[in-house]
Amino acid sequence: MSQTVTRALRLLAELGDGERSLDQLAEVLGVHKTTALRLMQSLEDERFVYRDGDFRYHLGAGLFALASLAMEQRGIRRIAAPHLAALNAATGQTVHLAAYEGGEVVYIDKYDSRHKVRMYSRVGLRAGLHNTAVAKVLLADLPLAERRRAVAAIDYTPHTPNTITGPQQLLAELETVVAQGWAQDHAEHETFINCIGAPVRDASGRAVAAVSISVPDMVAPYEQVLELLPQLLETARAISVDAGAP
């Protein structure tokens, strides 16, 4: 049973990257087409996938409904929503909310920029742990021993010339984040995007989420992104207050 569940989840993850044929899905699992077909039929029965007229599979409405329920169960997302919308309206820039779970940082809400240049990010997507402002904010809030373990486990893939490439460099950066109360991604994940992030705290005083503003450099240079910091920090503070932070 566990192997069947694992295979089904792998197929759903594969479809998250786009439509696939049965041959392609069987190849992903390294199984015969009949095995893949049985799995897909079960997923299709639950509306987790659907097959189009060209016999290609897509993620289905049942999965989207389940994802929507999962998002609704995140109290911090609901609390943050009006504040994120206001920040997005005031700045015109892309605003994200992210959370740390299971050793990963995941985007749980997003408000798109009013500009034509859009970011690839989407709700449910993982954020890079060593090259995004939201991840730095959340890693910096971990207890020191846990922070060191998390940093040691990262794959330091260099995405740009500015990407942090090792644990000692990231640990030093996280100390800066702790001291100043916010983080930056200065063209570290994408060469043309700058980002600033700040923690959202609940009644425990711990960071339960991170809010960020991301700006393409063709819209505003890095120095102008830093000018948005007071608005970002005020938004993070307002969400934290509503979440019960002391």
Q: How would you characterize the overall build of this protein?
A:
It contains ten helices and nine strands. With 246 residues, it is of the alpha+beta class. Strand 7 (183-186) and strand 8 (193-201) form a beta hairpin. The longest helix has 17 residues, at 75-91. Residues 2-61 form the HTH iclR-type domain.
Number of strands: 9
Largest sheet: 6 strands, antiparallel
| Helix and strand composition category | alpha+beta
Strand content: 15-25%
Q: Which stretches are poorly predicted, pLDDT < 50 over at least 5 residues?
A: none
For the residues shown, what is the average pLDDT?
90
Q: Number of helical segments? A: 10
Side by side, the strands of the main sheet go 6-5-4-9-8-7
Radius of gyration: 20 Å
The end-to-end span amounts to 46 Å
Shape: globular
What order do the helices and strands follow?
HEHHEEHHEEEHHHEEEHH
Q: Considering DSSP H and I runs of 4 or more, what fraction of the residues is helical?
A: 40-55%
